[in-house]
Design brief:
23% strand; alpha+beta; 2 domains; 549 residues; 7-stranded antiparallel sheet; 5-stranded antiparallel sheet; single chain
Amino acid sequence: MSAINAVELEIIRNALVAAAEEMSVTVWRTSRSPVVRDILDYSTAVFDAEGGSTAQAARMPVHLNSMARCLLDILADHIAIEDWHEGDIIITNDPYSGGQHLPDILTFKPVFLEGRRIAIAGVLVHHLDVGGGAPGSYHAEATEIFQEGFRIPPLKIDEAGVRNQAVVKLLLRNSREPEKVGGDFASQLAALDIGVESLKAIGRRYGADRLAEASRLIQDQSERAMRAAIKAMPDGTHEFEDFVDDDGIERDKPLRIHARITVSGDEIEIDLSGSSPQAKGPVNCTYNMTDSAVVCGVMMSVGSDIPANAGCYRPIRITAPEGLCVNARSPAPVANRMAVGHRIVNAVMGAFAAALPGQIPAAYYGVSYVYAFNAFKEDGSRSVYFDLECGGWGAHPEEDGASGFSCGFHNIANAPMELIENDYPVTFQRYGLVPDSGGTGKTRGGLGLERSFRVDSPEGTFTCNFDRFRTPPYGLDGGAPGALGRMTLTRSGANAVTDLGSKVSGLPVSKGDVLSLRTSGGGGYGDPGARDANALQADLEDGYVSGGD
């Protein structure tokens, strides 16, 4: 076999990325629920024949980094690679078997060419509702994972091309939205088939041996690039900490997320040992989720141009002792794991700000604003309106933060209000930027968002899992923190506005009630007095009422 030259390697790399993107487009075009179709809460990736990640679509880092770890966990502890056969599909959503939380169902399908395994296709989809104690499967008062929904251990849902329909029936019987979840699940499995055919075509064109060698070289390139980026940093140790407001159960008890980064040569260690013990409420992360957050924080700080695959993870070592909120023991609840996950990213980037002064932005809003409205309709049916919001991005040393901008960790899209109103009994009253919500500084933080909707069904319940209502996104180098978030309820016919807090479970609501969310702005960067006159005028035009003063 002749050596693969640089041009051919780049062609194969892009072909593998295209295979991941084809799977992504398939999910987008064929899914049924707004959380998948509009918010784009799913991810697709390609792995080599042994389970090492090689290419991925431009979707959600929180999924993509953890998909690789999940697959390796399945291979090591549940279904060995020798037992993966043509036509098999392996499925799981178990956070304690490599998953993240129960709504995220992972599926993997091996790719065979002339009897030889040449790759693995992977698709992860966040499903609208998989049961549990709250609509949308985000039970804010859960104290163990058994209250959070239908749990699938790693198993073969397809074996030699034959589907185990009992698993599908169990999943849908446990969902409040079986039609939408069933459609999304069919979309997910169809995307796997598209990925398999695309990878077979690549294998036929280049041969199994050259594809395996190209995958190795692609991963090695990313490893070299990551090591070079780390080596360019001065050796040393830097620490930073941030806090989660609470776990939804012990509401007066913030959770500490402490990151200590040690740069040594071309390797870096992130030690999270100083973080709080695992929480009673559902904000905990399993190790795979923490691994994903750490890698995201590192990539966002030093490796943004490095292709993400198994290679770029190799120089990163993570210490996260079991029993902490960053590595919870089973059966701790984990549905709102993004509360701690985002804060890990914030803390890691805060530590890098000390290691790379003048290069790292202030804190972004730092939370997935997840809420669900369970509507009881006049005909006796029900529906689950599930949504996600974002906030303001932190100011960069050289420019202002973006307003209403989804951070790279979850990379969600906006669900159009017109489509939501068409599908669910709600009417939006307001959707816009929150004035003055970004932290002031030489460069200012981005503005948060306000989203208000009126309940149009006779009754229903409301659940939310937010954060940053007490601990604001931090500013850097003298910049002010971003504004805190706020969630309110205005009852029909009443003038009084009630603050709900950040974590609510099963709140009864009725027709005419208005629910309003304000998300956090990003932190500011630098001395506000150094902001020039042109920037202050731009502040006024962009919705900063005070003009940054």
